[in-house]
Automatic annotation (TrEMBL), chains A, B:
GO biological process, one term: glycine biosynthetic process, by transamination of glyoxylate
Residues reported in the UniProt entry to bind substrate: 346
Family named by the database record: Belongs to the class-V pyridoxal-phosphate-dependent aminotransferase family.
Protein name: Alanine--glyoxylate aminotransferase
Keyword annotations: Aminotransferase, Pyridoxal phosphate, Transferase
N6-(pyridoxal phosphate)lysine: residues bearing it: 197
Domain of life: Bacteria
Domain Aminotransferase class V, chain residue ranges per copy: 32-336
GO molecular function, one term: alanine-glyoxylate transaminase activity
Necessary cofactors: pyridoxal 5'-phosphate
Amino acid sequence: MHSSFCPPQRTLMGPGPSDVSPRVLAAMARPTIGHLDPQFIHLMDEIKSLLQFAFCTRNQLTLPVSAPGSAGMECVFVNLLEPGDTVVVCRNGAFGGRMKENVERCGARAVMVDSPWGETIDIDAVEQALKDHPQANALAFVHAETSTGVRSDAQSLAALASRYGCLSIVDAVTSLGGIELRVDDWGIDAIYSGSQKCLSCAPGISPVSFSDRAVARIRNRKSRVQSWFLDMNLVMGYWGGGSKRSYHHTAPVNALYGLHESLLILHEEGLQSSWARHKNCYQALAAGVDALEINLLVDKSYRLPQLNAIEVPEGIDEAAVRARLLSDWNLEIGAGLGELTGKIWRVGLMGHSANQKNVRLFLSALGSVLAASGWERKVDISQSLAAAANVFNDAEINR
Amino acid sequence: MHSSFCPPQRTLMGPGPSDVSPRVLAAMARPTIGHLDPQFIHLMDEIKSLLQFAFCTRNQLTLPVSAPGSAGMECVFVNLLEPGDTVVVCRNGAFGGRMKENVERCGARAVMVDSPWGETIDIDAVEQALKDHPQANALAFVHAETSTGVRSDAQSLAALASRYGCLSIVDAVTSLGGIELRVDDWGIDAIYSGSQKCLSCAPGISPVSFSDRAVARIRNRKSRVQSWFLDMNLVMGYWGGGSKRSYHHTAPVNALYGLHESLLILHEEGLQSSWARHKNCYQALAAGVDALEINLLVDKSYRLPQLNAIEVPEGIDEAAVRARLLSDWNLEIGAGLGELTGKIWRVGLMGHSANQKNVRLFLSALGSVLAASGWERKVDISQSLAAAANVFNDAEINR
């Protein structure tokens, strides 16, 4: 009846998970040891220090939450908010909406600053909301909106939060490792990410980091954190420094082997190089898509390189194309969410997936499937590939 | 500075994680696919059906929470409780205490029924509490107290809950797969477990199951579940049946490969055989420990086979012995928790770790370390091993 599961070998160019490096897969298969083993404690220290490197922070409270990114989001909100608090929340996609859900489930009030899906956050509108709500104690926004492919100006937003005496809360699920992100220099107070995007680790872990100001708020809460599992006052006892660790929960040992290896790969490459690689792959992809006369949804000035929202041409069945890419090319891309359902494809170039081979594969596959779908336009795959190659060649020459 | 982490090859005989089978390790290293991939959806269905097998239930709402057992515990409480509810909570160890924490963080009231650590739950006292608090809507207890090695009479307690119109909430973190547990036959309403105990998967996943009665309570809540991540009303949309799955969070794909493989191993062996193997290993271990004239803490009638609380003999430094077992024998056992700190060792025989080789290794190692520690008593390792061998031989003969 049942048998071992042997997954197909996909190329993952959706909104995440991204392709996981064989090094990371191998790490996860190493023998499990105890979560209080001295060697594991040593690994935890290394992971903390590598996460500080990835986030560009010296924050002591920097650690991987033992659950996916949505739990990392919840971790930040339940620790920082108390019932009755007011938070200004920016929403220009699905994940800003999820922040609102989290704020309200903490018994706090979310003041929403909305921008259309596909556009970036309007900083003036945010400032107005902060002026209108002087009681607000936090400003929350998404750095890289995975639902639309939009980058927000995290540096300016964090500075604005600070100017109005608010903690800045940043969703960096899709940004960490893929685009510039400097927690300390930008004055970010609380940030969460995910393992399965530009870190290219398996899904299931959420790196978080809290500034000293945020930690002070957590330590001085009037009410208890509503989640026992995510209560940083308790988690600190296990992840905190020193040789004496108190048991809180059993860490996901093998998943953390994987995270460590993925952070190591990022460390070997260097942050600047990783950011440059993502940008270069995106430019090549955009050139190739442009050559097919297909549009990208997002304005160039705030596009994410790692998540490309490609407009579905008129007369094309978006789901049928995705299904064909998966069945015939073993290539996964993502659908639109919410109001963009049916209107865009989301093509990820994240971490290990951001490479020249994948860009070429995607352009060939998309062109081929569109041509086979009886699209009215003539599809010239070689021109598309040549446009991408030009970008790669220019980058080589300029090196 | 940093390099890949190569863990030592330990034998895990603590309170969990237990030894992970090479089959499970290999499964976790298979290529990551998307969490909405049709092949992954198929795997999810298989996992659900294998979990139903393991729990002995036909509950539709049976699935693995994407986080460790403590999140599974929280998942059950936040979904079933509303502010102002009253829950009778049995506490005879650390994990009953954690249940109280969870109840209170939901804004509910915990009526505690305490028994001394190391003793089983007093059913008469529980009944009295249910009589004294007719407004109680749930009875919560731990089936296998990992902190003490005590089994509770889950069948009688669940029946009692039902008689008093309460939902029964059961912590089966350490019991699932190791001792008899029948969710449907015993009328259990909500139950959570962990991947890293008798299932011998890597830590990080928490199987849960809810009866129809419990699902009705979740669907008819007056207030929203305080956790977005653990809200079963949302999780059901992703794990529920049907081909249309709505995205909730990104499932920990590779960890679920591992869980699937570990459940498959349990399915191949059969529940009765697994329970019998755990019992047999425990009996051999107990005979060997007895031959060393060392006591087990817990009364024979409610001892857990999979978690043995061994009293530290007078004059022996318990931490030094554990450290020696780890450094010289690569053997991990656990320390006592709470009021049993320094007084017991906790020796696990869970899942893949419950085998003859491990029992012999433990007896040899313990005897050897005690002898080397200058213990006043004479240590006869061969007699201890012979006592264990007798148990194993008897089991062979009686087969």
